[in-house]
Amino acid sequence: MSDYIEGDLMEVYDRNLKKLGKGKADWKFIIDVILLLRPGIIKPRKAYQNLNSYSMYKSYFKIGWRTLFRNKDYALMNIAGLALSITCCLLIFTLVKHHLSFDNFHENNEQIYRIVTEMHSENEHYSTGVPTPLGTLVRDNQTFSEKTARIYIHPNALITLPEEEEKIKYKEASGVTFAEPEFFNIFNFHLVEGSIESSMNALNSAIISERLAVKYFGDKNPIGKTILLENDLEISISGILKDIPDNTDFRSEIIVSFPTFKSFMPWLASDDFWSGISGNLQTYVVLNPSTPTYEAEEALTYYAQEYPINKQTKSVYKLQALSDIHFIDRFGGGVIDKNHLWILSAIGIFLLLTACVNFINLATAQALRRAKEVGVRKTMGGQRRQLFWQFMVETGIITAISIFIAIIAAYILLPNLNNLYETNLRLALFTDRSLILFIVVLGLVITFLAGFYPGYLLGGFQPITAFRQKLSQQHIGGFNLRRTLIVSQFVISQVLIISLIVVINQMRFTKNADLGFDKEAIVMVKAGDYAISKMEAVKNECYRLPGVEQVSLCNNAPASADKWETDILRGNSQEKMDFLINMKLVDANYVSTFNLDIIYGRNLIVSDTVMEILVNETLVELLGIINPNDALGSHISVNSGNMKGQIVGVIKDFHDRSFHEAISPTILASASRHYSHFAIKIDPQDIQSTLEGLRSIWQGNYQDQVYEYAFLDDRIEQFYLTENMMLSGIQMFTIIALCISCLGLYGLISFMVTQKTKEVGIRKVMGGGEIHIMWIFGKEFVLLIGLGFVIASPIGWWLMQRWLQDFAFSIQIDIWTFAIAGIGTLIIAAATVSYQVLRVAFLNPVLSLKAE
Predict the structure, then answer these.
(1) Cβ neighbours, 10 Å, residue 439
(2) Are residues 221 and 350 in the same domain?
């Protein structure tokens, strides 16, 4: 045996002898030698080094575990802080990953685009639709598109099963989609039964999803069965579609052949219809890889110029990437804003950094208590790197425990997250590779961030200094380091508090601000039959209900996601104005039902066609009329001159969309054939019985329809769905950030109290009072929180100013926002440290002086 290995082996023998006794040590020594010297397997020195490394890390783990059990308070505070932040990171990662994965399962998804329309005039207008013939021309004449498909989405469709004994009706909120066959060549939606070609080329043919097949027909074979669309169009089922994934914006589970669309809505399906667009008629293309998007958009410019939708507005066709459809609000997306995802991601990182800062703070504070341990290790030959890795292993143990707790917490909290964001997320811990990788990387990053500096610091202690307990604050990084870390924690917390206050105030503003009309206790009910005689009869029946105060027939409410935007001409001029107006077709009761304010002139007189018109102040201004009273008696034409009327009144501006958008120029006119809704103002004291009465009226008059209603204030609330989700998220994460910060603050004040116990005793013996003692501890944190507030205020102001820029109508950030944030943080910090400070301040000085 070589000399260089013999000494090492004898050390192994001596260790086994002490541990196992003479006989067992001999046998274990022989086995160790055989294992180390097996020929062809591993070299003796390397084998021993591996065995020694294993023993070393096993020792690190054992010592680390014991250290944590000796310092339970320290361990629990770190585990609690890290577990909270990791739980948030897991939930945020799951949510962000879900939304970023929308429609990424389609082949060549990066080449798929939707052609959208921008209309530039006095106001900007955006539509997801294009003129019907554009798709055909692109397919036949353009090389930039490898594949082209048109679809028409008919939302909130009424489906009837005529073959059942009793006609069963369903309202499908996701609607019905009429699609060209090439739609299935662009998007990866697969059939489990039937043929795409035969189904999508035949007249009155449809494909339905597996889920709907079971819902409609149970165990029966759905192929060949018929359904009725809107009690009118009979459609035969010729294929079964595999259930649509959650992560797609194409939610329709009934796909009807495009030739059927030509009989369902012939005027819009016409290949000569260039004079208007519907946002529901959309065109998708697969872009040629060699063609940049700007070249394709330049090619589309020809069609915008050759076939103008409106000569007074400049139409521009753009390509919208498939990955953007889910996020862009102005083009019908906006389920969640991409900025919201980045904000959530940033909050997750901030929470993680806050927890790591806590760890570093508490670990460096604990370093003084471990001085003797370090001195003993270094005296016995321990190297700095060994001490470093010892602490890194301890950090790894805390991180592993925190991750384990966080995974359990994430499973428990996931249903709440799904309710908040209206999702169906799952934590597939054993099958989702990206989640597993995220957890592993997160664990390594936390261990490094939290453990590196304390481990480096502990390894640097000099043995003699450590033994004599002469270590000072400077040896463990000093208070300056911990001051910096505490300030950084409270900067993050106070930025979140400032953001929370601003978002709350803006949401309160959207709820309480004067919209220019009444929204409370108004029920919007979709008409079942658009015949005016039938609608008037139902209207009269509604008035007989005790709880009904007003009823109006209209195409939509004052504030609605649906807008009929059209052109306008003034007087006898044939030249259209360079802006579009929002047209609302209403009866004479509309003004009183919504309590609109007529500031000049009078209300409309009942008419079946457009004869008299009400205009809002914004439209009067755009028409160039200085005195609104002068607008009365003027004549205007809308809808390409098809509707003409005299202005009989000017109404005060009202918000026709969310506060994100400016008030549109708007007209109100009577045209009974366009009424589609009943607006019913009811007594708020008798809502339930009134709704039941309305149900009875509908069931008696519209047997072929499904009774559906919505409160107007709930519909308006949907305008701010993203903001409300953001508010709930910030509320939750602000509380968590404060909890993590307070955990660290509590740990540090506990350490300071322990270090200054004797000093407090001496001060009290020398006549110091309790208030003076409390101020010794309190002033440090008051200064640090104050410094954090000074840094956080401009950051919070800048972030919230940028957020508020998305609103056309917003609050002003005032001084009270920052005052509440600063004072609130100070109160929370004071409550956190008060117990420990009061305990030491009122401690008997005799006991203080005896403290070790």
Answers:
(1) 19
(2) no
Last residue of a domain, one of 64, 81, 99: 64
Question: Beta strand pairing status for 581-585 and 709-711?
Answer: unpaired
**290 assigned to some structural domain:** yes
Q: Per mean pLDDT, which range of 12-16, 78-82, 320-324, 584-588 is the poorest?
A: 12-16
Helix (H, G, I), strand (E, B) or coil at 268: helix
727 phi/psi in degrees, rounded to 5? -60, -45
Indicate if 563 and 696 belong to the same structural domain: yes
One domain for residues 207 and 306: yes
Tell me the C-alpha distance between 161 and 157, whole Å.
Answer: 13
DSSP lists the bridge partners of residue 259 as none
Q: Which of 344, 483, 503, 367 is nearest to 417 (CA)?
A: 344
- What span, in angstroms and rounded, lies between the C-alpha atoms of 169 and 230? 10
CA distance 194 to 240: 6
Q: How far apart are the first and last CA of the chain?
A: 54
Considering 301, 325, 349, which residue would you say is the last residue of a domain? 325
Going from the C-alpha of 757 to that of each of 750, 761, 764, 836, 849, the distances in angstroms are: 11, 6, 11, 11, 7
Residues 319 and 343 in one domain: no
pLDDT band at 467 (very low <50, low <70, confident <90, very high): very low
Dihedral Cα 819, 825, 827, 832, nearest 10 deg? -170
Of 586, 570, 588, nearest in space to 578 by CA: 570
Residue 88 lies in a domain: no
Range of lowest pLDDT (481-490, 542-551, 596-605): 481-490
pLDDT, one tens digit per residue, over 614-665 is: 999 999 998 888 888 888 988 898 887 788 889 999 999 999 988 988 899 9
Looking at residue 144, its amino acid is F
Q: Using an 8 Å Cβ cutoff, are 746 and 360 in contact?
A: no
| Domain membership of residue 477 as a residue range | 338-510+722-850
Instruction: Let me know if residue 22 belongs to a domain.
Output: yes
Whether 236 and 117 share a structural domain: yes
The answer on 476 and 353 residing in a single domain is yes
